[in-house]
């Protein structure tokens, strides 16, 4: 079982997901809650401009604050100034939810498809269906379906729900029912108020960012949540069903106990070594992230042909690349130059394995293709700023 370690560094919150061997699988930067908790919040915004060329609109949620709204996210929009007819117009007052932070020069992203994520379920305003996580077994789905059907939750059929993997591990389903009922109350309140509220009103203030991150983690994979900061403990404890361990040991710091500085430094270095002796060179640029795979110190012994060695190096690199993208939180276009292999079969094995590793990412990540020059193209959705925006390799 892994551990979730949360600490503070340089005035930001750092969350480490460590597997059973103590290796980091994700490093997440969050901020202390401010007066405006933007991500996940729901506003009545004003459409300032519609740009048909990029199929998007720019919407103001405050007098000097705009967000980017793709038109494909507006299929069932709620407008406070008129009935929606499927077409958005300049000046419309529309309910939007902030879905991503500003990244460099890009505005925060928004959607008119409103949803409320929780530990055990996600509630959606634009749906009436209840669906279940693909990670749930058929028996678990049947048990949860029967429990939800038996329990009469007022207003449940007015909204859609996605039942998350965490619900499987509830001996008693009451926490799931309470979460569903809470979300129904929030959406009912929004529906009752939005037509009478002024533009730029915040109808729903989201939970602290760190709490949202924790609720998206499958808790069955981790047996401990640990922090060495009392403020962090007080911040997250009221929102979680699982205990948070407060670490206090004057002899050994939490950072030293779990080698957090080492993990952080390695996640910022240009070169990453592979178990076989090969290595990656990771170069973020303004337009894309470029990754080069090198054979390094790897060499074929008598039992391994050189072509099989290249496949071995590439497969190890594929696994590490998927992990490094999560650790470093790189997004946008990622171009990977694997070691060239002459065999089409070996290339297909590599692409299939890489696709499997990328699908483990909680952030939407897509393996596009391998070009004629053998460059593998990957895209990863922009959610947060990369780790290198906050720290340098020389961690203090």
Describe the structure concisely.
With 396 residues, the protein is α+β, with helices and mostly antiparallel strands.
Could you give the topology of this structure?
Layout (H helix, E strand, L loop, with lengths): L1 E8 L2 E7 L5 E7 L11 E10 L4 E7 L2 E6 L22 E8 L8 E3 L3 E3 L3 E4 L5 E3 L5 H13 L9 E4 L10 H20 L8 E3 L4 H7 L6 E6 L2 H7 L8 E2 L7 H4 L2 H7 L4 E3 L5 E6 L3 E7 L11 H23 L3 E6 L6 H15 L6 E6 L4 E6 L16
Parallel strand pairs: 1-14, 11-12, 14-15, 18-19
Antiparallel strand pairs: 1-2, 2-3, 4-5, 4-7, 4-13, 5-6, 7-8, 9-10, 10-12, 16-17, 17-18, 19-21, 20-21
Largest sheet: 6 strands, antiparallel
Proportion of strand residues: 25-35%
What is the number of beta strands? 21
Kindly name the structural category: alpha+beta
CA-CA gap between termini? 29 Å
Radius of gyration using CA atoms only:
23 Å
Order of helices and strands: EEEEEEEEEEEHEHEHEHEHHEEEHEHEE
Kindly state the mean pLDDT as a whole number?
90
Low-confidence stretches: none
Morphology call: globular
What is the helix fraction of residues, given as a range? 10-25%
Helical stretch tally:
8
Overview of the structural elements:
With 396 residues, this protein is an alpha+beta fold. Among the domains are: 2-33 and 209-262; 270-389, no CATH class. It contains 8 helices and 21 strands. The chain has helices spanning 138-150, 174-193, 209-215, 230-236, 254-257, 260-266, 306-328, 344-358; strands at residues 2-9, 12-18, 24-30, 42-51, 56-62, 65-70, 93-100, 109-111, 115-117, 121-124, 130-132, 160-163, 202-204, 222-227, 245-246, 271-273, 279-284, 288-294, 332-337, 365-370, 375-380. Strands 4, 5, 6, 7, 8 and 13 form a 6-stranded antiparallel sheet that branches. The chain has a 6-stranded mixed sheet with strand order 16-17-18-19-21-20, covered by helices on one side. A 5-stranded mixed sheet has the order 3-2-1-14-15, sandwiched between helices. β20 and β21 form a beta hairpin. The longest helix has 23 residues, at 306-328. The two termini are 29 Å apart. The mean pLDDT is 90.
């Amino acid at each position: 079982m892994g551990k979730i370690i949360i600490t503070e560094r340089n005035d930001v919150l750092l969350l480490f997901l460590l597997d059973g061997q103590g290796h980091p699988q994700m490093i997440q930067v969050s901020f202390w809650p401010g007066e405006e908790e933007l991500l996940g919040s729901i506003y009545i915004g004003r459409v300032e401009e519609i740009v048909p060329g990029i199929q998007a609109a720019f919407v103001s949620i405050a007098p000097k604050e705009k967000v980017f709204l793709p038109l494909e996210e507006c299929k069932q929009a709620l407008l406070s100034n008129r009935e929606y007819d499927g077409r958005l117009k300049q000046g419309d007052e529309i309910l939007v939810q902030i879905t991503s932070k500003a990244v460099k020069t890009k505005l925060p992203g928004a959607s008119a498809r409103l949803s409320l994520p929780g530990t055990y379920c996600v509630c959606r305003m634009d749906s009436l269906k209840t669906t279940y996580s693909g990670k749930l077994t058929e028996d678990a789905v049947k048990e949860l379906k029967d429990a939800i059907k038996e329990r009469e939750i007022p207003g449940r059929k007015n909204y859609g729900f996605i039942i998350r993997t965490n619900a499987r591990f509830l001996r008693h389903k009451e926490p799931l029912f309470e979460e569903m009922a809470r979300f129904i109350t929030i959406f009912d309140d929004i529906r009752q108020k939005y037509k009478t509220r002024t533009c730029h009103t915040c109808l729903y203030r989201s939970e602290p960012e760190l709490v949202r991150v924790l609720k998206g983690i499958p808790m069955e994979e981790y047996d401990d949540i640990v922090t060495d900061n009392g403020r962090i403990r007080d911040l997250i404890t009221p929102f979680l069903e699982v205990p948070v361990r407060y670490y206090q040991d004057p002899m050994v710091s939490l950072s030293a106990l779990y080698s957090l500085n080492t993990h952080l430094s390695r996640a910022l270095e240009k070169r990453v070594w592979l178990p076989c002796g090969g290595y990656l060179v990771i170069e973020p640029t303004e337009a894309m992230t470029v990754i080069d795979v090198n054979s390094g110190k790897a060499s074929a012994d008598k039992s391994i042909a050189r072509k099989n060695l290249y496949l071995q190096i590439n497969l190890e690199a594929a696994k590490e690349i998927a992990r490094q993208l999560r650790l470093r939180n790189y997004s946008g276009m990622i171009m990977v130059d694997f070691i060239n292999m002459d065999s089409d079969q070996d290339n297909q094995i590599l692409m299939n394995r890489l696709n499997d590793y990328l699908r483990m990412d909680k952030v939407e990540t897509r393996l596009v293709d391998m070009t004629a020059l053998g460059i593998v193209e990957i895209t990863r959705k922009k959610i947060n700023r990369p780790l290198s925006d906050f720290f340098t390799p020389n961690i203090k």
